[in-house]
């Protein structure tokens, strides 16, 4: 079986174990069904997710031109504390930024290897946690805009990490923590402007990933450097496909790559 399409991050569905889907123009592939099968990726060309041109992908699936001009690639995406739509100040496109920033946002704790703090739109829960490979997560505050979420995250970052250790996440060197306790410890550092939005009653969400076998050592696959790969799929965690030989393929970092996917 062969499929061809431009990679975008896998869609997910939180059931007893996470279900993963690859969406191509003419195919909808349930990746869980490829577990234990030998599959191959053949990199054919780039295709920017916005302009559609065959230009090298710079970041987020966009070519450099699109990445430097599109409102959905603005600095406030990666640094929520730089959001300014609540002040009526435009970054690249005020209408777009108002719609994206002036809506409920969640500051959360997610544990994918160690506990980390993060920010996301409320509508992205639990998608964001699944994408990070978190086996447990909990909300800290629900605020009305992205700016408030950003300054809360910045304040908490001095007391807890804001990075995922993806190697530990993929080899499953993880510990179980009581995130309600961790949240309680951090409460004192929430900025005054966000304190009224503290969520003390939310419970931990647990996430189970479809992994048959965790690798002892991980090597990452970069299709730009190595345009062809073939291996037996042993697991899916976060946005990674994990293979029998320890290869981990980050689907999200290959957005905008047109590939041929072979299932043997
Ligand atoms: Zn483009």
How do you describe this structure in short?
The protein has 264 residues and is α+β, with helices and mostly antiparallel strands.
Describe the overall structure.
The chain is of the alpha+beta class and 264 residues long. It has two domains: 2-63 and 211-263, no CATH class; 74-206, no CATH class. It contains eight helices and 16 strands. The chain has helices spanning 64-69, 75-78, 94-101, 127-131, 146-157, 166-171, 179-186, 192-195; strands at residues 2-6, 11-13, 19-23, 28-30, 38-46, 57-59, 62-63, 105-111, 115-121, 136-143, 205-206, 219-220, 228-237, 240-243, 247-250, 257-263. The strands form four sheets. The protein has a seven-stranded mixed beta sheet, with no helix packed on it. Strands 9-8-10-11 form a four-stranded antiparallel beta sheet. A three-stranded antiparallel beta sheet has the order 2-3-4. Strand 14 (240-243) and strand 15 form a beta hairpin. The longest helix is centred in the middle third of the chain and has 12 residues, at 146-157. The radius of gyration is 19 Å and the shape is globular. The site of zinc ion has 9 residues, from strand 7 and helix 1.
Indicate the topology.
Layout: E1 2-6, E2 11-13, E3 19-23, E4 28-30, E5 38-46, E6 57-59, E7 62-63, H1 64-69, H2 75-78, H3 94-101, E8 105-111, E9 115-121, H4 127-131, E10 136-143, H5 146-157, H6 166-171, H7 179-186, H8 192-195, E11 205-206, E12 219-220, E13 228-237, E14 240-243, E15 247-250, E16 257-263
Parallel strand pairs: 12-15
Antiparallel strand pairs: 1-16, 2-3, 3-4, 5-13, 5-16, 6-7, 8-9, 8-10, 10-11, 13-14, 14-15
The structure holds zinc ion.
